[in-house]
Amino acid sequence: MKCLVTGGAGFIGSNIVDNLIEKNHKVIIIDNLTTGTKENINEKAVFYEMDIRDKKVEDVFKKEKPEIVFHTAAQIDVRKSVEDPIWDSEINISGSLNILENCKKYNVKKFIFSSTGGAIYGDTENIPTTEKEEAKPISPYGICKLSVEKYLHYYGKIFGLDYVSLRYSNVYGPRQNSKGEAGVVAIFIDKILNNEQPLINGDGKQTRDYVFVKDVVNANMLAFEKNITGIYNIGTANETTVNEIFRLINKNLGNKAEKKHAPAKKGEQQRSCLDYGKAEKALGWKPEYNIEKGIKETVDWFKNKDKN
């Protein structure tokens, strides 16, 4: 099949691209390379350096006629969304609508959306959190992702666009960008490898549900292959503290770093963990990587990357 991956030079998108090409699908990538890199682009993919907000996106749809769209392109920095919610909405809502309008116009069969779990639900009493939990996002980033899901419901009901929204927990793994507010795993590994001091915000007891990128790719493949529509959590149902993440990474790197804390970030979510029961039932998906295995593979990738 012909698949378009927006953000296909980025962390999650490029891993999806590689998997699709391994399965002999034809792949087109749209990416503006703000956070993605050319090194991540599979040479067998057709690449367009372009912003998802660009009117020229229609030219790509017209020429390539994709049947499936994996929409991973986004502004992913929660803190930047707080600083500039208008800019965040231009990319995450207007950019997504630009893609969706072209999906409608050029009869795309299915739209698979990279959404967010933690940022959509906010702080909840029910942990692990299911899809039935009321969405209470406390960041413009989470609000934008939820808005796109509402638009997907509209495009599905009114225009018959099949869609799957995958609400990820904290994704980590090879190719994660360690710059900016990328994800604590990549940041800690990068700092320790470069003999810099990683800092744990607050007491480090805040928890997240860390899901390995290969498990996320597998969820995308199942969403593509199965005849389903709707919203599904993609997480591990396990909470891991930031202190434990630091310990595991440091252990894999020879315990080189000292454990140091910085002041807590104002308004930071204390707990986040997703129930994946619905995805297991509908997709036959469950995580295959536990945190120890995933961290080891991620550390090995970063070590080898620095050698090249």
Describe the structure.
This protein has 308 residues and is an alpha/beta fold. The protein folds into 2 domains: 2-172 and 212-236 and 274-288, NAD(P)-binding Rossmann-like Domain (Rossmann fold), CATH 3.40.50; 184-205 and 239-272 and 295-307, UDP-galactose 4-epimerase, domain 1, CATH 3.90.25.10. It is 42% helix and 17% strand. The protein has helices spanning 11-22, 57-64, 78-83, 85-105, 118-121, 140-159, 184-193, 213-225, 242-252, 277-283, 291-307, and strands at 2-6, 26-31, 46-49, 68-71, 110-116, 162-168, 170-172, 200-201, 207-208, 210-212, 230-234, 240-241, 261-262. The protein has a 7-stranded parallel β-sheet with strand order 3-2-1-4-5-6-11, with helices on both faces. β1, α1 and β2 (26-31) form a beta-alpha-beta unit. α1 packs across α8, α7 runs parallel beside α9 and α9 crosses α11 (291-307). It is globular, with a radius of gyration of 19 Å.
